[in-house]
Amino acid sequence: MRLALPIKPNGKIKYLQCIRCGETYPVDDYFEGCPKCRDEGKPANLTFVYAEYGKECPLPYDSYSSLGEGNTPLLPVFDEFPSFYLKYEGRNPSGSHKDRMSAMIVTRAAEKGYEGVAVATSGNAGLSLASYCAYFGLKCAVIATKDLNPQVRRFLEAYGAEIHLTDTPMERWEILKRKKEEGFYPGSNYSNPPVGTVHFGVQGYKAVAYEIVGQLKGTVPDKVLVPASRGDLLWGVWLGFKEMKQADPSLALPAMIACEPFARLSRVLDGEDYTRSFPGETALKSIDGTTVTYQAVKALRESNGFAVEISNEEAEAARKELAKRGILLELSSAASYGAYKKLRKNGAVGEEEVVVAIGTSSGFVEI
């Protein structure tokens, strides 16, 4: 039985716009991104353009399905790093930043009359969407590889999710396309080369930027460190900062830093094509993958940011250090603090610079 959703679209939406070519489109679901760029073999996501911007984060909906996500703490962690803060997204209802996306996606799926939501995931997105779908009475199909964390699987089963396991990551996208044809709203990317998650979902991440500036009492950090694969969070947070600057041109903008387990975005910034494959191996499963997106590259280039590689060992050391301070992060999430330490050591981050690392998810499901 579905819970009656308090859905109210934002009346100040003007249109959608391609983040690459600038083409505009009426508001709709473009799961494969901009049709023009897709046909050119250069896939790119769309974003919302609003009639005005102010102090509040504009979202596609003024009223939407929520389990209380957002307003996560911004924590000072170490006395020796007084300008370093951790944005702890593990405090969201399902334990990760993905809840911000899920609120938008489940609302959109319900608004358009979809039977449920389907997602290709390594864990967190599946947990989040299964939780939100269960609460609001939609079906959820979770597609993961056979090495899915057994504890994650138990949670998914408890939420009543339909679970599909594959031999390879790319097989997940094929099943996701089939589920779309069966009446499920795609809650993640299924294109190759990828676009990223549908624009409705990415909008939910903008609030992270607004919260950070509010929690820093109006100060914009010099750098924001984000664990990244296909860059939904990286791009969404950057969008939030850009929108705040539209409302207040005097506001500074941070450099966005992507934390990745092996060279992908860094190779694109050095000149390689973003549509190619970048093989690599890592234990950082939430930011694994051999592909990148245009949105991730654009966030780094526009912000004068860069990508930094974090090894399994560096992430594990960072996780242990944070755990001793009472903050237990998923291994992939700890990559942002590992990146901070690495950049301080090599001089890429100065002692006085205000830096925020996004701790994307709790580590409890990995215990």
TrEMBL record:
Its cofactor is pyridoxal 5'-phosphate. The keyword Isomerase does not apply. One of its GO terms (biological process) is alpha-amino acid metabolic process. It comes from the Bacteria. Residues 66-358 form the Tryptophan synthase beta chain-like PALP domain. Keywords: Pyridoxal phosphate. PANTHER family: CYSTATHIONINE BETA-SYNTHASE. This is Threonine synthase. It comes from Caldibacillus debilis.
